[in-house]
Amino acid sequence: MRKIVIAGNWKMYKDLEDVRAFCKAIASSLETKDLGRVLPILAPAYPFLALLQRELSDTSVKVAAQDASAHSEGAFTGEVSAAMLTSLGLEYAIVGHSERRAMHNESNEIVREKLMMLMDNSIKPILCVGETLEQRDADDTQKVILEQLNGCLNNVSLYSAEDIMIAYEPVWAIGTGRTATGEQAQEVHSIIRNWLTHTYSQALADEIPILYGGSVKPDNIAGLLAMPDIDGGLIGGASLKADQYLEMINIALESRK
Question: Fewer CB within 10 A of the terminal residue: the chain, N end or C end?
Fold first, then answer.
């Protein structure tokens, strides 16, 4: 059965004191807890990656980067390479987040380059796809999702669920308080899983976790997890609070999936 992933994307929030307090609260709650197939992931800003790894080393929480460079090395001030992340022992990194696409003009081709760089360095990408409100209102959701999948995974070989995760994040639901209903999210998750089936194989499609991202919080995560193709959340604001993050882990543990 697929893992249920509770992935927190902290974006550009929290200072050193905040991070230490969060880690203390999380570690004390999760050190002795059997999480079964629930996989907690946290993606802090770059300066705190090693700190989270150290402070949460006795828990099941995995640490992810929020992005990675499309370049292997060189004169790219401010960039962080996949090889650098590998040297820290990281196993996951987010690519293609809508904020990167919108604010940094990242095309599907650039996202693909980053994704390939991560895979070449044994880091599992969490690939984000999603449509804007204008695209949804124009009934272009499926078209946009398929364009992003085809562009970002063009000629990319996938062999197992260990190679990648995919996160569907409708741009209109990120940080707005609006959330796709379980049925709306399920519809797109089904499109993604069908694409994986036709592009790769049924067996692979059945294995790869597909997460939902867009104002996920303790109040709505149970309904999302009840959908057959939703395997967890890529969570923003609610993952910044230790009590809410732990609550979502507990809800995932009690999920019937």
Answer: N
Residue 20 has pLDDT above 80, yes or no: yes
Closest CA to 250 of 27, 38, 3: 38
Burial class (CB in 10 A: 0-12, 13-18, 19+), 16: exposed
What does the angle CA 113 – CA 117 – CA 123 come to, to the nearest 5 degrees?
Answer: 130
Cα 45 to its chain centre, rounded Å, is 14
Nearest CA-CA partner of 56 in 42, 46, 45, 69 = 42
Given a cut of 60, whether residue 257 has pLDDT beyond it is no
- Domain definitions of the chain by residue range: 4-254
Q: At what angle do helices 141-152 and 108-120 cross, to 10 degrees?
A: 40
The neighbouring-strand residues paired with 207 are: none
What per-residue confidence (pLDDT) applies to 174? 74
Class of domain 4-254: alpha beta
CA distance 221 to 255: 10
Q: Are 124 and 118 in contact (CB under 8 A)?
A: yes
Within the chain, where are the H helices?
16-30, 49-55, 82-87, 98-103, 108-120, 133-137, 141-152, 182-199, 202-207, 221-225, 242-254
The residues annotated with a catalytic role in the active site are: 97, 169
Note the pLDDT tens digit of each residue in 103-127. Answer: 999 999 999 999 999 999 999 999 9
* 124, β-bridge pairs: 92
Torsion of the alpha carbons at 155, 209, 228 and 198, rounded to the nearest 10: 10
pLDDT at 175 over 80: no
Round to whole Å and give the CA distance between 111 and 116.
Answer: 9
From the list 160, 176, 162, 179, the residue with the least C-alpha distance to 230 is 179
Identity of the amino acid at 52 = L
